[in-house]
Amino acid sequence: MGVKRVGILGAGVVGLNTALQLQSEFPTLDVTIIAEKFNQETTSDGAAGLFRPSSSFSGPNIEITKKWILDSYRFYDALRITGQGEDSGIFQIPAYNFSNYNEGMVKNHLLETVVPVYRAMSEDELEEYPGWKWGSFYKTLIIECREYQPWAIEKITQSGGKFRQRKVNTFSDVEDFDAVINCTGLGAKYLCNDSKLTPIRGQVIKVRAPWVKASYMSDFDTYIIPNRNTITLGGCRNYGSYDLNVCPFTKADIMQRCSAVLPSLAKAEFVRDWVGLRPHRDPVRVEAEMIALPSGKNLPVVHNYGHGGYGVTSSPGTSMHAVQLFKEQHAASISSIASKL
Ligand SMILES: Cc1cc2nc3c(=O)[nH]c(=O)nc-3n(C[C@H](O)[C@H](O)[C@H](O)COP(=O)(O)OP(=O)(O)OC[C@H]3O[C@@H](n4cnc5c(N)ncnc54)[C@H](O)[C@@H]3O)c2cc1C
Q1: Which atom of ligand 1 is nearest to the CA of 42?
Q2: Atom of ligand 1 nearest to the CA of 168
Q3: Ligand 1, atom 19: nearest CA belongs to which residue?
Q4: Which CATH number goes with the domain that contains 224?
Q5: Cβ atoms of 89 and 147 closer than 8 Å
Q6: Which residues are paired to 199 by β-bridges?
Q7: What is the rounded distance in angstroms from the CA atom of residue 149 to the CA atom of residue 153?
Q8: Of 26, 29, 109, 332, which has fewest CB within 10 angstroms of its CB?
């Protein structure tokens, strides 16, 4: 029997990008997204959406990691260039990175060759931002998930995709599908019993400050990232923490650090606080597996999870890779799907 019905587990940015890639390669496949949470209930929704992997972001090797980032940038930028940026929450911005401690902090080997501009700031430019020893300037994208996720859901629906709201406790719960792609983020820790997956807690403040038109990052995880109607101020990285409460001390610290970078933020209007858990895994897991279920069925699964603080940035690329693994897993029946196109 060939593969006809595919279940994608997870409706965060990774699951949605996987569905978009799968449908674009195989328009006749019957695709269903199964997820406990959607849109504003997901981690992806609160992410600032800056297209910027950290230098430490890693796939299985450097070639694959670089390919994920390049494929992702091209995917988002193509949407922007073809006039779909307005509806999907994608736009280009100028960005600055500053550091007083380490010149390496303002370099980024994964981004430098991908974005249209990435260069060290000159001494004259740095004079405009007094107090910083090193700086870099680049142009990158914002992918605002509060707009991107509903846009993607609409696209997937228009292409015949279906959605099912439920928690998946074991892979037996989805054995009615011919194949499954697992994009459950931190949920994979339990679903796959994966001890390599760890939360890295982040806290941000969303403010209104329409005069801020560029993104700024600096030491101690300080960032100011414009979205369409708000600015995201951050941040922190609490390794291994599951605490989803807003910490008032962290909030005050973020406000102080961001205002030191851009003093005009003292006049910003508060909108909301947000805390999220980055699904960190080193390396990100994009792997095929055949899972033997208690019923006796062998379920072909491709995993696509563990993107940490860079899932918005990297998920189109990891999704293309996951679809390639899906193709290899189903090589025999894929030729019959392709022949029906
Ligand atoms: C403060 C902060 C700022 C960030 N800023 C950026 C940024 O600027 N740029 C960037 O690239 N990234 C950023 N990130 C990281 C980004 O948010 C994550 O990498 C990304 O959201 C991960 O997406 P995901 O789809 O894997 O997870 P999620 O968005 O968490 O989605 C997981 C999905 O799986 C479902 N699920 C899980 N378990 C189950 C189960 N058992 N059964 C059914 N469904 C299940 C959930 O319901 C959900 O639908 C930031 C993160 C934080 C916390």
Answers
A1: 29
A2: 42
A3: 311
A4: 3.40.50.720
A5: yes
A6: 279
A7: 6
A8: 332
